[in-house]
From TrEMBL:
Top-level taxon: Bacteria
Name of the protein this chain belongs to: Uncharacterized protein
Length: 72
């Protein structure tokens, strides 16, 4: 029963991962999950860097609009 529930969850997670990476479904289903996961980690690192860069730019804003641009 647990195996029957786990397989669809794994397949759905692989499908969502492939969509998030903008790659084809074959990348996730042909045993290339290691490559897909490393690409996802790289994308997260790049997004974190960009968010930090935006925070630095927006935190330099002076005047009445300063509080509007603070990122969480």
């Amino acid at each position: 029963m647990v195996i029957m529930l786990t397989i669809p969850v794994i397949l759905q997670a692989a499908y969502v991962l492939a969509l998030l990476l903008g790659s084809s479904m074959s990348l996730a289903l042909t045993g290339r999950l290691d490559k897909a996961l490393s690409m996802l980690l790289e994308a997260h690192a790049l997004a974190a860097f960009k968010q930090l860069e935006l925070f630095r730019v927006f935190s330099d804003i002076k005047g009445p609009f300063r509080g509007l641009f603070l990122l969480p």
